[in-house]
Specification:
The chain is about 75% helix and about 5% strand. It is mainly alpha-helical. The chain contains 17 helices and two strands. β1 and β2 form a beta hairpin. It has a two-stranded antiparallel ribbon.
Amino acid sequence: MTELSIDGGQRTAVRLAGCATWRDYVDLLKPRVMTLVVFTGFVGLAVAPGGLHPILAATAILCIAIAAGAAGAINMWYDRDIDAVMARTQARPLPRGLIDPSDALGFGIVLTVAAVGLMGLAVNWVAGVLLGLASAFYVFVYTMWLKRRTPQNIVIGGAAGAFPPMIGWAAVTGEISLASIGLFAIIFLWTPPHFWALGLYRCGEYAKAGVPMMPVVAGERRTKQQMLLYTVLLLPLGLLPYVTGIAGLVYAAGALVLGGLFVVCAVRVWRERGRETGDRAAKQMFGYSIFYLFALFGLMVIDRSNGGFM
């Protein structure tokens, strides 16, 4: 439903508050964030030993996508007050009043139950339980407990985003293995420098919203130290898929290059004076961190498809 308003002599269509469309509900699922979650879940499924019927594989990926989106919807419901304060999130459906908060919460809960139940019944309950655990961790541990209370929010809470490859692996094998834990560990260690890079150039917004991100509480210098430490630790950790035998030399070489560039990004951030440069290095590191994870996990699939286990 729309109404016409006149602004500067021009007639502009404006949607009435509360008139949600299907696109608003899609936005509620955080589709851009979901893309990376779904991709890492797919990689876990693709590199796991054994096989899964294509229909079951598609079902598993669908369940991961739905549960991730549902957790995002509940996160938006809970954080709608601070989302309204931050420029990065003001355009979301709830701050704009396009969706009723109770509808958003119900939407998220129903999708979560459906995704976990379908995963358990159609694929296996190990994958189903892991999916439910990831959703619960993101909603209750990260969103409701840690996010507004501690600068370690993203360090501990980041575990929620590290579950998808384990879930994909469990969908195929029905178990948790050292190799799948290694995939979890890579994302777990990647998460803090990824989000702290964002926190550096959005520091003012987080401070205004009262979210104790590391740059807000510990300061710029301490944050940059931690980012450099995490990327240095991530460099050898990225070789775990090679060590555990789920990827070969092609992957190992690529992981070293990608990890080395990640460290270079962290060094550039460390040396940058953010206020003088507009946090250019931090913005570039945030963008590269997304590419890094896509490329790293993509290499596993490429290496496996080429039989590169050497």
